[in-house]
Amino acid sequence: MLTNPYDWIIILVVIAVLFFGASKIPELFRSMGRAVGEFKKGRMESEMELQQLQQQALQQPLVQQKESRVEDLEKQIAELQKQLEELKKSKQSQ
Questions:
Q1: Where do the coiled-coil regions begin and end (predicted)?
Q2: Closest Cα partner for 85 from 93, 69, 55?
Q3: What is the tally of structural domains in the chain?
Q4: Which one in 6, 21, 34, 71 has a CA-CA gap of 20 to 30 Å to 14?
Q5: d(CA 89, CA 74)
Q6: Distance (Å, rounded) from C-alpha 60 to C-alpha 56?
């Protein structure tokens, strides 16, 4: 009997008219529209935050790689400085 979705819509409209009256229905739909708009806005904001988090997660390994590369280069520089000092000492002693 009520297999068609339009039947349900008609029943809901009749119930709304009975409970709220014909003058309150525009206000009801206006508030429902605002609620749907707020929901969509919140959903878009959460999706944007997720995208930002994903981008940050992708960038973090790059930053860590750069930091480890900088540390490696600093160690190499320190070793080369030690070798240079040893060479200077060995030249002075000769």
A1: 63-93
A2: 93
A3: 1
A4: 34
A5: 23
A6: 6
2's CB contacts (< 8 A; 6+ apart) are 8, 11
* Per-residue model confidence as pLDDT tens digits over 15-62: 878 887 878 778 878 888 999 999 999 999 999 999 988 888 777 776
The length of the chain is: 94
Q: Is the pTM of this model over 0.90?
A: no
Cβ within 8 Å of residue 20, ≥6 positions away: 28
**H helices present in the chain, as ranges:** 5-20, 25-93
Structural domain for 86, as ranges: 5-93
